[in-house]
From TrEMBL:
Its EC number is 1.10.5.1. InterPro entries: Flavodoxin_fold (IPR003680), Flavoprotein-like_sf (IPR029039), NAD(P)H_dehydrogenase_qn (IPR051545). Its cofactor is Zn(2+); FAD. This is Ribosyldihydronicotinamide dehydrogenase [quinone]. GO terms for molecular function: dihydronicotinamide riboside quinone reductase activity; metal ion binding; NAD(P)H dehydrogenase (quinone) activity. Homodimer. Residues 5-211 form the Flavodoxin-like fold domain. It is found in: Cytoplasm. It catalyses: 1-(beta-D-ribofuranosyl)-1,4-dihydronicotinamide + a quinone + H(+) = beta-nicotinamide D-riboside + a quinol. Belongs to the NAD(P)H dehydrogenase (quinone) family. It comes from the Eukaryota. It comes from Halcyon senegalensis. Keywords: Cytoplasm, FAD, Flavoprotein, Metal-binding, Oxidoreductase, Phosphoprotein, Zinc.
Length: 230
C-alpha cells in the first residue's frame, strides 16, 4: 500500500468527537503504511455546500436562464470553476481511495458533505453520459463510507423500525459513487457511540484501526440492487 493516495472527506464540527477519533485513526494508520493521506475537513474549511452561480468564475454560458448542471459542465471545460472546487477535484483526481467520515444525519450524510458531492462531482469531471456507473470518469478509484449513528444496530436490522442500514447506502454508494465509476469497499459503521460503554467505544476504535491494516487486500462489494435490497 505504500505510495497509495487517500483522501479523507471528513464532516464533524468537533475534533474530540467519535468521528474525529475515527478520522485521526485513519490518518495515523494509513500514514504508517506509507500511504499519502489528505484530509478535507469540511467544517474547518468552512466548505460552501450551496450550488450557486458563484461556483462559476466569469461569464455564463446562458445568462438568460441559469441551469447549474449545464453551467458547471461548461465552466469545467473552460477552466472557470471557483478555486475551492478546482482544489477538491485535484485531490479527488490524485486519490486511489476516498474515505467519507461522518455522523449519519437523517438517514444520510450531513448537508456540508452532500454539498461537497453536489459541487465537486460535476459532469465532465466525474461523469459524462454515457460514461457513468462502471464507465464513470472516476473509475479505478475506491470509496469507503465510514459513519456513526444514533440508532443501535438492532434498530437498523432488516424488519426493524429503521430498516436495514443498507437501504440508506443505496443513494450514497450506488447513486453517487458508483454512478461516477468508483468502486465501493464495504461500509464501516459504528453504531450509537453516544450510548455504548467506554469499553465498547474503545473496541469500535480498535476494530477500525484493525480493518485499515488489511484494507488494501479487500475486494470491492458487488454494488448492485441485490447487495442493498435482497
Ligand atoms: P460523539 O458524541 O462525538 O461521541 C460519542 C462519545 O464518544 C463522546 O462522549 C465522545 O467524547 C466519545 N469519544 C470520542 N473519541 C473517543 C475516544 N478516542 N475514546 C473514547 N471515547 C471517545 N442518528 C441516526 O441513527 N439516524 C439519523 O437519521 C440521525 N439523524 C441525525 C440528524 C441530525 C441533524 C443530528 C444532529 C443527529 C442525527 N443522528 C441520527 C444522530 C447522529 O448520527 C449521532 O449523534 C452521531 O453519529 C454520533 O457521532 P459523534 O461523532 O457526533 O459522537
Ligand atoms: Zn452500484
Amino acid at each position: 500500500p505504500a505510495g497509495r493516495k487517500v483522501l479523507i472527506i471528513y464532516a464533524h464540527q468537533e475534533p474530540k468527537s467519535f468521528n474525529g477519533s475515527l478520522k485521526s485513526i485513519a490518518v495515523e494508520e494509513l500514514r504508517k503504511q506509507g500511504c499519502s493521506v489528505t484530509v478535507s475537513d469540511l467544517y474547518a474549511m468552512q466548505f460552501e455546500p450551496r450550488a450557486t452561480r458563484s461556483d462559476i468564475v466569469g461569464c455564463l454560458h446562458n445568462s438568460e436562464e441559469f441551469n447549474y448542471g449545464v453551467e458547471m459542465w461548461k465552466a469545467y471545460k473552460r477552466g472557470c470553476l471557483s478555486s475551492d472546487l478546482i482544489e477538491e477535484q485535484k485531490k479527488v483526481q490524485e486519490a486511489d481511495l476516498l474515505i467519507f467520515q461522518f455522523p449519519l444525519y437523517w438517514f444520510s450524510m450531513p448537508a456540508i458533505m452532500k454539498g461537497w458531492m453536489d459541487r465537486v462531482l460535476i459532469q465532465g469531471f466525474a461523469h459524462e453520459f454515457p460514461n457513468c456507473y462502471d464507465s464513470g470518469l472516476l473509475k479505478n478509484k475506491l470509496a469507503l463510507f465510514s459513519f456513526t449513528t444514533g440508532g443501535s444496530k438492532e434498530m437498523y436490522a432488516k424488519g426493524s423500525i429503521n430498516g436495514d442500514i443498507r437501504y440508506l447506502l443505496w443513494p450514497m454508494q450506488h447513486g453517487i459513487m458508483h454512478f461516477c465509476g468508483v468502486e465501493l469497499l464495504a461500509p464501516h459503521i459504528c453504531f450509537a457511540p453516544e450510548y455504548v460503554s467506554e469499553e465498547e467505544k474503545k473496541e469500535m476504535l480498535i476494530a477500525w484501526a484493525q480493518r485499515l491494516k488489511t484494507l488494501w487486500k479487500e475486494e470491492p462489494i458487488n454494488c448492485s440492487p441485490e447487495w442493498y435490497f435482497k
